[in-house]
Specification:
With about 170 residues, the protein is an alpha+beta fold. The chain has a nine-stranded antiparallel sheet with strand order 4-3-2-1-9-8-7-6-5, with helices on one face. It starts with a helix and ends with a helix.
Length: about 170
């Protein structure tokens, strides 16, 4: 009887140790995959050629059928994002309600937070008399939140993914 109990205890200890090692290996594999994805995202951002593909606005409005564009290419940005919010100041009936800009930004900076596998891109542009401060917070897998703070509108958040540019999209 004692022999059976001792054998069972040894088997349980061995099984527990093997399971713990398997879980550690699984966790390490996931961490390695996250690091690879984060490094690939850093390379994409450093290339200076990428696009933000917004899926929806933080208020829940989907952008699936609404034309939009946010492209960074060769030091220039091309932005045309729909705006749903409050505008301050005179606008008029024939003014464009979306957030638009095309050209070289006034400000462009990238900061990497390695511990959280997160990248922060800050872009500043002036469109006519309006100033837009745009912050892209990019996760290791490309998940991106874009916050636009404007001098003449309420702030707005877009949620989507940062992706490489496909030439057929631009042309």
């Amino acid at each position: 009887m004692k022999y059976k109990l001792l054998t069972m205890a040894v088997l349980i200890l061995i099984a527990g140790t093997l399971t713990a090692q398997k879980n550690d290996e699984k966790h390490q594999k996931k961490e390695d995959q996250k690091n690879i994805a984060y490094n690939a995202m850093q390379e994409l951002i450093n290339s200076g050629n990428y696009l933000f593909d917004p899926n929806y606005i933080s208020t829940g409005i989907t952008l699936a059928t609404i034309p939009n564009r946010f492209i960074v290419k060769d030091g220039e940005v091309d932005i045309d994002l729909p705006f749903f919010g409050t505008a301050r100041g005179a606008g008029g009936y024939n003014t464009n309600s979306s957030i638009t800009y095309k050209g070289v930004p006034d400000k462009y900076s990238v900061k990497y937070i390695d511990k959280k596998r997160r990248s922060i891109i800050k872009i500043g542009v002036r469109s006519g008399s309006e100033r837009h401060d745009i912050t892209l917070t990019v996760g290791y897998g490309g998940q991106t939140t874009v916050k636009v703070i404007s001098s003449a509108r309420s702030s707005i958040n877009y949620i989507g993914y940062l992706k490489p540019i496909k030439e057929e999209i631009i042309n």
